[in-house]
Amino acid sequence: MGVINWIKGSVNPVPRELKYTNDEVQEKFRVFLDDEGYQPNAFRRFLAQFWDSFEKPPRYRWYLHKLDANVMFYFLLSFFIKTLDNTNISNAYVSGMQKDLALNGQQRNLFNTVFYIGYILGSIPSQFLINKVRPSVWLPCCEVAWSVLVMCIATAQSATPIYVLRFFIGLCESTTYPATAMLLGSWYRPEELAKRMSVYDLASALASMCSGFIQAGVYTSMNGLGGIAGWRWLFIIDGIIGLPICFLGFYSIPDFPNTTRVSWLSDLEKDFSVLRMAELGQKSTRKLTLRRFLSYFRNWRIYGFNWPYILFNISGTYSYFNLWLQSLHKYSVQQINLIPTAGYGMAIFTCYLSANISDRMGLRWPMLLVAVFFNFFGNLLLAIWDIPFGLKYAAFFFPEIGYPVWALILTWASEAFQDDAELRGMLSAVGNTISYSISAWLPLLAFPTPKAPHYVWGYHLMCALSFLSGIGVLFFVVMEKREKRMMGRVVNKYGLAVDPDDLMDLKMPESVVDLVREEKVAEVEAEKGKNVEVSVRVV
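Structure tokens predicted for Major facilitator superfamily (MFS) profile domain-containing protein (539 residues):
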């Protein structure tokens, strides 16, 4: 019976309505937020420079640690596996797959093209499904499917089955990034979000880095083991790593604050999750209809976000670094796989550093422009091409310094568009659909395999796209300020634009939670001490 109820509750979950009297609110949240005048010691203040939760009161800190240990830990592992399963095709190609399967010409690019086609077809429909089916069910099921499909590539004897498998892998993976960005933006506040989005994105860089190490290790120690080529072992191992992580998702993913049913949060913590986000002016999830979805395209928001997002997405050139190394005829297979990992290590450092500065100083678009500049500069050097050997080496690495773009722009969008949870999920879904639609054919023209490694037209095009992505960031700034002015929004104490009616002050963590808005205070006093019920409706 419990299993049946769990299945029924997985589809069209019913949001909760929270009702407290003012006295009940004070009683419930006094200890949780204030912890009797807690003051962090010097060591905790030092740790908070790197991770914000360390200086919070004990119960508040424990709440954030539980979120991080479950939500962040699972999403990190999930994105790690997603990236590993996506990038291993490039490592396998230069590690024996090309020779064993007699691949030629453009087939390497076509493996990516069919993946993009699957991703394109799945991105937007999956966001509609997330609105109907709990993410804690939908996301792990998709991961199980793609992990099995990845292992099946190891059995391929020609390019044809790889095309089919890569298509369905892309279809299954398409839901991960937009849904995760939407979920993280629904659980974490402005001073917390960019760091966590950056750490989430770091999983991609870490996976890309580890893919090189794994392939080098597999090629060295397992090539020919059991009569199986090293590149085949790579797909088998990647799938085996992924399956246990998939099942963790059923437990760790908390859905949304107003629909969560996870056992690792108490009822008090579940209520607090809703209230602390409501104070920001953030709206909870609502039904996503086709009419509402189409209305997004009559507004500047989806265009303002996706202008820089798409252009930066398609202006990457780092995946061609190993082809340049291979063309030098001076490095072994292991070295060709290992050398590019330095760039991913650089991305890890700069991504976290940029996000930490952004969170602490409230800087979103200025940090974005810094990241865009490095991507532009690296592409500019590659477009010139006839430069010293060392500078050309560096040119491939510079775009990785611009890696923080995705974390920063998704954090910025979560804050700018906090009045529409479904839009936040659709932004990157639409962006990925368009960027992958372009990526499905653009590399075939800009980076044809026979022209490797000197792609004259390709590097010039990427340079131009990088520059235009910076212009897109400035367009976003102008349009966001214009919308705030035209809609009469006010800025709350967190620097977020909200409707005046959505202003709340939970006074965290200085004292107790006070759910009564400013205009309600006078009403409470007029009641001469009567117990006033305050309702927070989650719709």
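The first helix runs from residue 2 to 8.
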